[in-house]
């Protein structure tokens, strides 16, 4: 009897892994186009993840998204699943009904796999975002998003900050920002003073050869440079710092680590000579 149970367990696992492997090719183009069109109409901009396709394949066979993520080896902060057994029109309608919920949960990536006559959908906020580029590239995306705010001005908690000149990129401030973002993520702490060294932003800037005055903004948990800047604008002090006309240069970066409670940390380091 025990031998038969072992055989059945082995067969079930084999079937599950086969289904996961088959899902790596991703959904048919028509399904992907329909889903992404539905996401876009309700203001969602989700990145398709091949890893989440594998989670969706597991979810089509298992009871919960938690079980599916464990089988597929996917680390996440938030995840929701939807199993839809019907034609494409029914799938589009079902996703549309959940779209606001997905948006409010700030989910950013999706995967899909066959389920009966329809599809299983997984939407998630991953522990480490699937579409982030290198620290320098994302740092410059952070700069571009910051300069877009400075170009328009902003209401910072009831105080209007007028438009300010664009900031130039500074490699030294980038180096300081990257090193600190890495420490924030890997050592799992927050704050402008490093609890292990006692150093603050000015100390970190001087260590990489920047001799001017500096200011720093930190954001924890947002999954893109644009979302990080949008979050900082909603905080009056960070918003004012970002729009301070005295700053002339900036370096920015991020670091992501599964050691962190937030998953990802962003650093803006402003400077003037």
Strand order of the largest sheet: 1-3-4-2
The number of E-state strands comes to 10
Structural class by SSE content: alpha+beta
Based on Cα principal axes, name the global outline: elongated
Q: Number of helical runs?
A: 10
Sheet with most strands: 4 strands, mixed
Q: Quote the beta fraction.
A: 15-25%
As an assembly, this protein is single chain
Distance between the termini: 78 Å
**Low-confidence region ranges:** 1-24
Helix content: 40-55%
Question: Helices and strands, in N-to-C order?
Answer: HHEHHEHEEHEEEHHEHHEE
Mean pLDDT: 86
What is the gyration radius calculated from CA atoms?
A: 22 Å
Domain SCP: 144-270
Protein name: SCP domain-containing protein
Signal peptide: 1-25
Keywords: Signal
In short:
By secondary structure, the chain is of the alpha+beta class.
Describe the structure.
The chain has 273 residues and is an alpha+beta fold. The strands form 3 sheets. The protein has a 4-stranded mixed β-sheet, with helices on both faces. InterPro entries: CAP_dom, CAP_sf. This is SCP domain-containing protein. It comes from Deinococcus aetherius.
Keywords:
CAP_sf; 10 helices; alpha+beta; 273 residues; disordered N terminus; 4-stranded mixed beta sheet
Layout of secondary structure:
Elements lengths: L1 H21 L6 H13 L5 E2 L1 H10 L5 H8 L3 E9 L3 H17 L4 E7 L2 E9 L8 H18 L1 E3 L2 E3 L6 E2 L1 H17 L13 H7 L5 E8 L4 H9 L2 H8 L5 E8 L7 E9 L1
Parallel strand pairs: 1-3, 7-9
Antiparallel strand pairs: 2-4, 3-4, 5-6, 8-10, 9-10
Helix pairs in contact: 1-3, 2-5, 3-4, 6-9, 7-8
